[in-house]
Amino acid sequence: NAGVMQNPRHLVRRRGQEARLRCSPMKGHSHVYWYRQLPEEGLKFMVYLQKENIIDESGMPKERFSAEFPKEGPSILRIQQVVRGDSAAYFCASSPDWAYGYTFGSGTRLTVV
Amino acid sequence: QKEVEQNSGPLSVPEGAIASLNCTYSDRVSQSFFWYRQYSGKSPELIMSIYSNGDKEDGRFTAQLNKASQYVSLLIRDSQPSDSATYLCAVNMETSGSRLTFGEGTQLTVNP
User: Could A104 and B44 be called an inter-chain contact, meaning their C-beta atoms sit closer than 8 Å?
Assistant: First the structure.
């Protein structure tokens, strides 16, 4: 029973490029959450999705960031025209229900150069 | 006031001692409370969940919840150097919908 799978583990992008982060939830988990963690800081909520629906995107920057969780395939967090301030660890988590704790993936470390 | 606030670290304890980690939260209607452990450079790992007032024990870990005081704590008995990590308190708050709000974390170091 594989855990939450995130790829890539490390991603380097030049300023202005697009970053695409993927997340496959645990089997049986229909709730997916994306969090961002800056160095030496806590986890900041970005977006909560269920299949084909964005439930809560209150933590997403209004520009350049988007997320989806299609009927088939992984959840995608997309960052367009990346800037140095986007450099962070991006964690995906899943749960079977909103009242349960999350299982986190290994994260994607994004570095913008 | 932060929505979820943890006692400022870092916290250092000798091996074999009890480590006490504290967390307060702002939303009185919160229902679910969790403690995560995060080793440096790794992802958070769920170690305890608690939903009702009182104590919940799991091995060397005890979570304590007091909803009237809006306070949740984690005790680690017989602390080991392998317990050295950052501990994150997370709360599912009515005001935040269906997501967890995390504290900033408390860094724990257990000295051999």
Answer: yes
